[in-house]
């Protein structure tokens, strides 16, 4: 079997075009502020992509740049200012933050109503409790891709590899909310390969290049690769051995061009959602 490709670039572009149409019809432009601290090379690229995509879709988007050695108190004051600004609907603080800053304290400083990353404990808690709220962009994007592949999640065996607060945990909550039977695997799990082989839907989000081998994938399974790992030659690769897994899977996401573009599309979706809720 050779898997069909789940093209996140195309799906993400379609979502962004739909958002642009909706925003054109609004009497206001949803406001997004992305805060970047320092010059982490990956963050520079990601933040630029987010800002560009937001502007293209008609958002009022600005990037706030703070120096690497900024005081934590200054960053918290910046966030307080954005919380209080009526033109701002969505706030995103790009991670990672420098070591001298308590990232959790910063994420908790964002008004949950403007928390378009869905990282505030209020939003994480609402998701865990099965309540509506702002949902982290990457797992939300994965749900769009699963819908695109026509996957019937109700009763399906879903395996989430990785338990991060940003992807694994919210991913499992979303799959559970869609009535899948969810197994979470992590660094202390036993028989990881055998557990993955039972998956009808396999989401890999561990950040270990090519960890998921071809024979970990059940025939016809849907494989979603959230990993973005840089190889020694500078090229990107996922958490899944793509070539080998493609011989077993029914659907598979490439890296790059799979989940990544969906994260940005969902950030814009969340920003519109936050704007409509705030301004209702
Ligand atoms: N760094 C890597 N991915 C993300 C993300 O989705 N949101 C934020 N804020 N920082 C990140």
UniProtKB/TrEMBL annotation:
Pfam families listed in its UniProt record = THF_DHG_CYH (PF00763), THF_DHG_CYH_C (PF02882)
Summarizing the function annotation, the protein's role is: Catalyzes the oxidation of 5,10-methylenetetrahydrofolate to 5,10-methenyltetrahydrofolate and then the hydrolysis of 5,10-methenyltetrahydrofolate to 10-formyltetrahydrofolate.
Q: Which residues form the Tetrahydrofolate dehydrogenase/cyclohydrolase NAD(P)-binding domain?
A: 136-276
One Gene Ontology cellular component term attached to this UniProt record is: cytosol
> Is Transmembrane set as a keyword in this record?
no
Q: Where does NADP(+) bind?
A: 162-164, 228
- What EC number is given for this enzyme? 1.5.1.5, 3.5.4.9
Tell me which residues make up the Tetrahydrofolate dehydrogenase/cyclohydrolase catalytic domain. Answer: 6-117
HAMAP family recorded: THF_DHG_CYH
Read off the CDD domains from this record: NAD_bind_m-THF_DH_Cyclohyd
- Provide the alphabetized UniProt keywords: Amino-acid biosynthesis, Histidine biosynthesis, Hydrolase, Methionine biosynthesis, Multifunctional enzyme, NADP, One-carbon metabolism, Oxidoreductase, Purine biosynthesis
Q: Where is the signal peptide?
A: none
Presence of keyword Oxidoreductase: yes
Q: Which family does it belong to?
A: Belongs to the tetrahydrofolate dehydrogenase/cyclohydrolase family.
Q: What's a single GO MF annotation on this record? A: methenyltetrahydrofolate cyclohydrolase activity
Pathway listed for it is: One-carbon metabolism; tetrahydrofolate interconversion
In which domain of life is the source organism classified? Bacteria
According to the record's subunit comment, the protein's assembly and interactions are: Homodimer.
Encoding gene, per UniProt annotation: folD
Q: What protein does this entry describe?
A: Bifunctional protein FolD
Q: Which reaction does it catalyse?
A: (6R)-5,10-methylene-5,6,7,8-tetrahydrofolate + NADP(+) = (6R)-5,10-methenyltetrahydrofolate + NADPH; (6R)-5,10-methenyltetrahydrofolate + H2O = (6R)-10-formyltetrahydrofolate + H(+)
């Amino acid at each position: 079997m050779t898997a069909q490709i789940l093209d996140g670039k195309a799906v993400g572009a379609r979502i962004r075009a739909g958002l642009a149409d909706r925003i054109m019809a609004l009497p206001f432009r949803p406001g997004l502020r992305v805060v970047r601290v320092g010059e982490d090379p990956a963050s520079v690229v990601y933040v630029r992509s987010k800002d560009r995509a937001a502007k293209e879709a008609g958002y009022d988007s600005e990037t706030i740049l703070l120096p690497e050695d900024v005081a934590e108190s200054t960053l918290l004051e910046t966030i307080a200012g954005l919380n209080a600004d009526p033109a701002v609907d969505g706030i995103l603080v790009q991670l990672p933050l420098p070591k001298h800053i308590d990232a959790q304290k910063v994420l908790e400083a964002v008004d949950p109503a403007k928390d378009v990353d869905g990282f505030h404990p209020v939003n994480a808690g609402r998701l865990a409790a099965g309540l509506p709220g702002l949902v982290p962009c990457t797992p939300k994007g994965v749900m769009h891709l699963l819908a695109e592949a026509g996957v019937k999640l109700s009763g399906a065996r879903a395996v989430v590899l990785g338990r991060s607060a940003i992807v694994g945990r919210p991913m499992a909550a979303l799959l559970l909310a869609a009535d899948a039977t969810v197994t979470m695997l992590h660094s202390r799990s036993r028989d990881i390969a055998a557990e993955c082989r039972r998956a009808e839907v396999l989401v890999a989000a561990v950040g270990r290049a090519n960890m998921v081998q071809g024979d970990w994938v059940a025939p016809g399974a849907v494989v979603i690769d959230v990993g973005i790992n840089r190889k020694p030659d500078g090229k990107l690769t996922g958490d899944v051995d793509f070539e080998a897994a493609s011989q077993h899977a029914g659907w598979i996401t490439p890296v790059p061009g799979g989940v990544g573009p969906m994260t940005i599309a969902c950030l814009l979706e969340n920003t519109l959602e936050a704007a409509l809720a705030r301004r209702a």
